[in-house]
Specification:
heterodimer; A: 265 residues; mainly alpha; MetI-like fold; 2 domains; globular; B: mainly alpha; 15 helices; 0% strand
């Protein structure tokens, strides 16, 4: 277990220590201890590549995809959890199976569809944040629905009934009773959706241009310059990781519980 | 719990309490659909957004991808799909002809991916399970250890993999510093990101990134086994080994079934790790299928062949998944009846 902890933490140590090293330390042979500590990489990262712009793009794309995905998943999961209807099983199986197949399968057609929609209607999906938001929200949707069904199932039906007796419609019952009772599950789904969108590389590398580039692609900008600024790359990696890792570790209890509800069923 | 849960949420959205006490619930303000339509249509209405989006972004493109694989689709036709000429099974013939460079490299990439997947999934499962079993016991620092183990899962892929790429650098990376400078295991510092070593490098990164998920799921599965089962078994005189064999393993079966399948699909289709680790040109030894298809489509702009390869991949994955589910479910029944 000590060995495993070391294996897990090694890159984290490299990331943190290298981000505080002067450039000559990361250009020459590796050193466990920096020859001197500097915070300069943390200032330089913003100038070497337009990191701030990538950051804003990632934030907008991941944020919007998360909000949309959660709202849509809440409605869908409520329908599956509380109603019996024809095609219920087909729906859940279809939605889940889309999660299973590789992005590369619909990357090419989706790319062509976006390009052709742009060509024929003028709606710029290709190269825009909107296209990326649309794509990412469907990535997290299946798993979000699956996790929320588990959560909603664990909210007693009597609560809905009580709300209906008090005069709420089905949507009222959902918004006023089920959603508040399932907040941990919704938080878990939001974290998951945000992480998915924040870390996606494949579609980001194809569907963005200079102005809409996200961090996933932008971070590679440091290695295409003449010199490889490893200390800046490490600093930038750390900066882009902090929001998600901090969020994840704070909310991991919810996420673990949500995964459990879905996976063990 | 019931009264508290029903009252608090109802208060929360409303503005002031004084306004709330006199007013009726807001149902009177909302127009209502006729009862019957409401009862039947509502679930479908709730599902509609999810369904439309999944169709639009996943299923329709998949169908178009299949159509594309029967057309000659090079950069001349990309702006106008319908003008691309049909060419029957030519794309498929090119992709599976192992005597031609295209088919030969696809086959090599496929075999590499299979080998990589088996090793990676096996290691992820083994480490994840061992760690989950270990963390079943209560000890100080258990929560901290669990958080640490989940870090690779939480880090954005590109940030983590780019760090590994730095560690694997020949001249200034940590790995060569340890292997060559400190331990003296090699005569010259080896290359890790080009040549045959790149397979090892990719495997290490993939396992590092993937095992926490196995750990997470196994931990959840272990916690869901009721304690009473073990107690009852102990009273009946079952030893530790018998408890593991008769209770733990059968109880984990459904969890394992899903876990192994998900790990397999994720690892087999992994694009992010090799793409960030090696950049645009993956070395032959670590040319995973996703990257291979990506490169043969976007480097040569030959989307028809790329689509044909994608369709072949889809067929393969479907066959493996179906076979796996059939095989594991068939074996399950006698175990359940036991």
């Amino acid at each position: 277990m000590t060995l495993l902890t070391g294996f897990v933490l090694l890159p984290v140590y490299v990331m943190v220590s290298s981000s505080l090293k002067p450039l000559q330390d990361v250009s020459g042979s590796f050193r466990w201890m920096p020859s001197g500590l500097t915070v300069r990489p943390y200032f330089d990262i913003w100038d070497t590549v337009p990191l701030a712009r990538y950051f804003v793009n990632s934030l907008v794309v991941a944020g919007a995809a998360t909000v949309c995905s959660v709202v849509i998943a809440v409605f869908a999961a409520y329908a599956v959890s509380r109603y019996d209807f024809r095609g219920k099983r087909v729906f859940t199986v279809t939605v889940l199976s889309t999660q299973m197949f590789p992005g590369i399968l619909f990357l090419l057609p989706l790319f062509l569809i976006y390009v052709n929609i742009g060509q024929s209607t003028g709606i710029a999906l290709f190269g825009s944040r909107g296209g990326l938001i649309l794509t990412y929200l469907t990535f997290s949707l299946p798993f979000s629905i699956w996790m929320l069904i588990g959560y909603f199932d664990s909210v007693p039906r009597e609560l809905d009934e009580a709300a209906k007796v008090d005069g709420c419609g089905p949507l009222g019952a959902l918004l006023r009773v089920v959603v508040p009772a399932a907040v941990p599950g919704i938080v878990a789904v939001a974290v998951y959706a945000f992480m998915t969108a924040w870390g996606e590389v494949l579609f980001a590398s194809v569907m963005t241009n200079d102005t809409t580039r996200t961090l996933a692609v932008g971070l590679q900008g440091y290695s295409t310059q003449n010199d490889v600024y490893w200390n800046q790359i490490m600093a930038a990696s750390l900066v882009v990781s902090v929001p998600v890792v901090a969020g994840f570790l704070l909310l991991q209890r919810y996420l673990v519980a949500g995964l459990t509800a879905g996976a063990v069923k | 719990m019931t009264p508290a849960a029903t009252t608090t949420p109802r208060r929360a959205p409303s503005g002031s309490v004084s306004e709330r006490t006199g007013a009726q619930p807001p149902r009177s303000r909302r127009p209502r659909l006729p009862g019957r339509l409401r009862r039947i249509g509502l679930p479908y209405l709730l599902l509609l957004p999810a369904l439309v989006l999944e169709l639009l972004v996943h299923l329709v493109p998949m169908a178009i991808g299949i159509v594309m694989s029967f057309r000659e689709l090079t950069q001349f036709y990309i702006r106008d799909l319908n003008s691309a000429p049909w060419n029957g099974l030519d794309n498929f013939a090119l992709a599976v002809d192992v005597n031609q460079p295209v088919g030969e490299s696809l086959l090599r990439s496929f075999l590499t991916t299979c080998q990589f997947t088996v090793l990676s999934v096996g290691l992820c499962w083994l480490i994840g399970t061992a760690a989950a079993v270990f963390l079943q016991e209560n000890f100080r620092g258990r929560g901290l250890l669990r958080a640490v183990f989940l870090i690779p899962y939480a880090l954005p892929v590109y940030a983590a993999v780019i760090t590994w790429a730095f560690m694997f650098q020949r001249d200034n990376g940590l790995i060569n510093h340890v292997v060559h400078d400190q331990l003296g295991l090699t005569d010259t510092p080896p290359f890790w990101l080009i040549g045959d070593n790149s397979f090892v490098a990719l495997l290490v990164v993939s396992v590092w990134k993937g095992w926490p998920f196995a750990f997470l799921i196994m931990m959840a599965g272990l916690q869901n086994i009721p304690r009473e089962l073990y107690e009852a078994a102990a009273i009946d005189g079952a030893g530790v080994w018998q408890q593991v064999r008769r209770i733990t393993l059968p109880s984990l079966r459904p969890v394992n079934q899903v876990l192994v399948l998900v790990l397999f699909l994720w690892t087999f289709n992994d694009f992010n790790t090799p793409y960030v680790l090696f950049g645009k040109a993956a070395p032959e030894a670590a040319d995973l299928i996703s990257v291979h298809i990506y490169q043969s489509s976007f480097v040569t702009w030959n989307f028809g062949t790329g689509s044909a390869m994608s369709v072949l991949l889809l067929i393969f994955l479907l066959a493996v998944t179906a076979g796996y589910l059939l095989f594991t479910s068939r074996g399950k029944k006698p175990a359940d009846a036991h």
